[in-house]
TrEMBL record:
Residues 83-204 form the GST C-terminal domain. Pfam families: GST_C, GST_N. Belongs to the GST superfamily. CDD domains: GST_N_4. It comes from Solirubrobacter ginsenosidimutans. This is Glutathione S-transferase family protein.
Amino acid sequence: MILYDHPASANCLKVRILLRQLGLSFERVTVDLFSGETRRPEHLARNPDGRVPVLELDSGDVLPESAAILLYLAEGTPFLPSAPLERARVHQWLFFEQNQVEPGLAVARFMALVGRVGKHPEVFADRLRQGRRSLESLERGLVDPFVAGASYTVADTALYGYVHCASEAGAEPSEYPRITAWLGRVEATPGFVNDLEPITWTDS
Ligand SMILES: N[C@@H](CCC(=O)N[C@@H](CS)C(=O)NCC(=O)O)C(=O)O
C-alpha cells in the first residue's frame, strides 16, 4: 500500500499509527502541503478534495479521509467492534473528531506554526475557541479506559491525532486530567508510534 502523506500532518499520523499497530507494510509518499502539490491534477485524481492522507490499496483503489481509512483498515480487527451499538460509539467519536476537534485544533495549530495568527487574529481566535470547547467535551465524555468503552479503537487513534499536540494550537491538554491520563493509555497500546514532525515552513 502507498500512503500519500505529510510528516507534520496529524491527520496522516492517525493512519501511520494504525498501519503500524496492524503490522501492515506501506510506502510513504510525501505530498508537499506548502507548494500547491496537493491541488495538482495527479493528487486531485487521488482525492477530489486535494488533501492528505490518501491510502492507495494494492488493487490501485485510492481512499482519502483519515476516518474512512481508519475504518477500512480496522474492519475485522479488535480496533473496530462488530456489535452495532459498540461500533456506533466509535462512529460517534469519529464524527465528533471531524466536526469539532479537527476544524478547531488542526486549523489553529496550522495557523500558529506557520505564523498566520497575526494576519487573521479573529479566525485564529475562533478556531482556538472551537478547539478548547472540543477538549472540554472530550473531558466530559471520556470513559475509562478508552473513549468508546473497554477497548482501544480507531476512535482513540483519531482523537489522539490533534488532541495530543493541542498545545501547539494554543490549547493545553494537561489542564484536563481525564484527557491527560487517556493520552498516556493510548501511547501505551502495543505497537504505538508517534512520529509527528514539526511544521518548519513559515508564511512570510
Ligand atoms: N478531513 C480530512 C482532512 C485532511 C486535511 O485537512 N489534510 C491537510 C493536512 S493535515 C491537507 O492535506 N492540506 C493541504 C491542502 O488543503 O491543500 C481528513 O481527516 O483526512
